[in-house]
Design brief:
This protein is an alpha+beta fold. Helix content is 23%, strand content 18%. The chain is globular. The N terminus is likely disordered.
Amino acid sequence: MAFHIQDRPAVPALRSPSTAPALSGPRQPALLNVATTTHLFAGGCGDLLGFSAAGYEPVFAANHAQAAIDTVQANFPAVAHPRCDINNLDFRHIPRSRVLVGSPICKEASPAGRNSTASQQAAGGAARTGQWSRTRATAWGLIRAAEVHDYDVVCGENVPDFATRWAPFEPWLNVWDALGYNIDIASVNAAHIAGEGNEAAPQHRNRILFAFTKKGLPRPDLQPRPESMCRTCGPVQGVQVWAKRFEQTGARRVGIYGKQYRYACPNVRCEAVVEPVTRPIRDHIDLALPGRRFRDGRANCKKFTPYRPETRRKVTIGLERFHGEPFIAILRNHCTVQSLGEPIGAITAEGNHHLLVQPSRSRTVDDCDVQMISLRTKARAQRFPDTHAFQGTTAADLTRQVGNAVPVNAASWLAERLQPSLN
């Protein structure tokens, strides 16, 4: 039986076009010759939605999970969608397309994977662990596909650690060069990526986007230029500025917003640091949904289970900081609370980390109304429209699809940037 993401009760459509996550309105001109796409690791279909909205025609999508394949079928019934292990897929038997879109598994390369660089090796410096072997296998699968189909463009998304902590990353790029591809990599945040008719995500999600284009084709412009506000010049398009160590010859510019790079005013007489304009998560949360009092303990437990002292501490911080306004307590290490007036922290594929807190009149912790943000809110944070039908039989099926997906706005932005290489 299919299990669709929905709130309790069903959430009505967002009330205004400015808050709706649907990809609609004016877009970039469609490709002169419609480019076909192949999607490996299709997941929740974020990349299929983004590329389709930009004028591409998906012809093939694969994933190892049945729930993900069911989601492809529900939303893109005309696309061939076998369930298969990408590592063992015979690419000779799949349709030819101009573009290959594939974002290899990234969990173990991310902070959520709880891996250090040293964890790539077993005790005594022997073979790598199974998880890192899995990353290596899926990443090399893109090369296997390109050897067969000689795509015009190969592209995808991953966490920055894929480039900085996966030891074979540079050799992997060398193979693409040997296959005749130019290499372009951009560090982006989903909250800053937008375009005409393509609103930014209400989510801070640091990722890299890679595009390998056949030598001889125009190289894409992958420089993000988010709408920003300069205190001196007013509205501008920010220019990415990197820390000094990235100015060294041969340094690969991969990093996280606010740590390795910022944005500056493009006016040469100013060049002040600017902040990109972002969209708040508030517009994507239904505050009318009932929760439960903090004193009543955690939901979905067979017996009374109180919240941890650390959670109580974070709620206390939020009550003091936001003066009775609703807020989110972030149940991750090294995080506390955030306002609903800013993008939400990164949505993940496993676990719930965002506790919505609505203070009572008494503004005491025990009387606060609390609930984990809904799966629908998480999907909106990834820029999925409410009409997108996720399939699955368990909540875990849905959480993985939403958390693992490429944000729809980021996929659409990448697709539009690739158009000059394909026309």
